[in-house]
Amino acid sequence: MLQVDLIMSRFSLSHVPSPIIFDQAPELFYLDVDHYSVHGLSGLHLSQKIRDLVPNFPLFTDLLKVIKIWASRRLISDYVYGFPASVAWAVLCAYICIHTTRFSNENYPYNGLLNPSLSVELSEANHEPVDGPLLLRDLMDIQNGHEIMPIITPIFPHKNAAYTVRPSSRDIVVKELQRGFHLTKKIVDGSATWEDLFEPYDIRQDYRHFLKLVLSADNFQELGRLGGLIDSRLRDLAGFLEEHKYIESVRIIKASDLPKHPCFESGSGKLSNLSECGRERAFKRAWLLGMRILKAAPLSDGSYPERKVDVTQYLQRFYGTLQERDPNTNFLDKLITAYVTRSDLHADG
């Protein structure tokens, strides 16, 4: 059965205008329009606003396609895992397209985007001529004042498009922007290739310790329902784990995002035994949480002792959160958690 998720908005008018023109003040345009309808219209409004603000729209769309592919390959495109949403990347691309013609190479605004305190607002004010380098405004998010990476949409109700970003995922995004910036310069110089820029990210390069979560469902519908719930709460688990004094940061990925996934032959890019692999993974979904654990103090001989980190209480809180959301499911049976190391993942892959 085909299921379609549609967004609906209601107007307090006798008919829906075509096209919808957002040229009135918000208090007039959205008069007697409910909260859900305002948010339903925000996507259309944003696309029209970006089209109006960007001087070369075809260039913007080309850039956005490249950025989306790059973000997907580098595993920084899933907003549920604490990374900027697709809208945020669109705002950043529009920001760059608006301003790149005004500055010398040394003062391009993307130098500011490499700053860990990244904060961007896109609005008509950005059309005003400026004499010096563009300074990114030190904005706090207007929603609650606690956002980590404010990227503010240029239309009412001016939301932060990166509201799910955590401190550790913000640092990952900035690191990837820096990597992309330096690789792009090398590509222009001829010392690197586009394949280098779009190389799929392998979490095993940066993390040695992992929690592996495997969901086993009874059918496809249950897999979608429980998988979606777990997906939406993994940021909570990452936040819980980062409360531990020895866990510096946590990164979330789908287990299927590992390069050389078990369902593919190593290096060939072809599917291995598809029917066998399909049976093994039937109604299952798995995630990996890479944990960067601080080293223990070195011993007198210079070696480092093994550091034991107990995460039981954080897992209990996470399972409790899931149980509150779905009291009728026994998550202790459905969701199995295990500690694995980088060498374990290499052996599996």
From TrEMBL:
Residues 60-97, 142-199 form the Poly(A) polymerase central domain. Gene3D superfamilies: 1.10.1410.10, Poly(A) polymerase predicted RNA binding domain. It is found in: Nucleus. One of its GO terms (biological process) is mRNA processing. Pfam families: PAP_central (PF04928). It comes from the Eukaryota. InterPro entries: NuclTrfase_I-like_C, PolA_pol_cen_dom. GO terms for cellular component: nucleus. It is an enzyme of class 2 (transferase). Its EC number is 2.7.7.19. GO terms for molecular function: ATP binding; poly(A) RNA polymerase activity; RNA binding. It catalyses: RNA(n) + ATP = RNA(n)-3'-adenine ribonucleotide + diphosphate. Signal peptide: none annotated. Keywords: ATP-binding, mRNA processing, Nucleotide-binding, Nucleus, Transferase. Belongs to the poly(A) polymerase family. This is polynucleotide adenylyltransferase. The lineage of its organism: Eukaryota, Metazoa, Spiralia, Lophotrochozoa, Platyhelminthes.
